[in-house]
Specification:
With about 170 residues, this protein is an alpha/beta fold. The chain has a single domain, classed as Nucleotidyltransferase, domain 5. The protein is built from 5 helices and 5 strands. Helix 1 packs parallel to helix 2, helix 3 packs across helix 5 and helix 4 packs across helix 5. The longest helix has 25 residues.
């Protein structure tokens, strides 16, 4: 039977950075913690990044993840927003490396497809499925929080599918 792994999902942003921590063996998943980090929107970018780094560093300390899953940059946003998102991703990737964890990255469509069955799912649909998978009754405070948990679940489910594929007998083997 597979062991539970502690997975930290991060939905990057400079206005709001969502995080979600689950324990999963690929089949069952337990919510450990989640939230959203909100630097002051009036601060210049460098100071918002410093605030995000300090807060996210504490998340790493508090939860000690074994896996870090980060959402990739999506191309359908304006270049300025993409650049700011990339800065926040840099903070998350650096902190993962500082804690000795090589992060995995998922395109937003991949996360949606893994959770909802198709890559164009609406945020609300993904959030409802995340609530169901983790047996959460209350609504999420932000979409960034549910997105971060979806990213963590994406990793867990992908590992489950990969393990199942390795265990399937090949054609002619039986």
């Amino acid at each position: 039977m597979p062991e539970f792994v502690r997975i930290l999902g991060i939905d990057c942003g400079t206005q709001c950075l969502g995080f979600g921590v689950i324990d999963s063996d690929g089949y069952s998943h337990r919510l450990v913690g989640s939230g959203a980090l909100h630097p002051k929107p009036t601060e210049v970018l460098a100071f918002r990044l410093r605030t995000l780094a300090a807060s996210l560093r504490q998340v790493f300390i508090d939860y000690a993840p074994q896996v870090v899953a980060v959402e990739g940059v999506f191309s359908k946003i304006n270049p300025r927003a993409a650049l700011q998102l990339t800065h926040a991703r840099g903070v998350a990737l650096l902190l993962a490396a500082e804690h000795g964890v090589a992060p995995v990255e998922y395109a937003p469509a991949t996360v949606k497809a893994m959770i909802a069955g198709h890559g164009r799912a609406e945020k609300e649909q993904v959030a409802r499925i995340v609530q169901s998978l983790l047996q959460i009754q209350q609504p999420f405070a932000t979409g960034d929080e549910s997105d971060a948990l979806a990213i963590a679940l994406c990793y867990a489910l992908q590992q489950n599918f990969a393990r199942a594929a390795r265990q399937q007998p090949r054609v002619g083997e039986q």
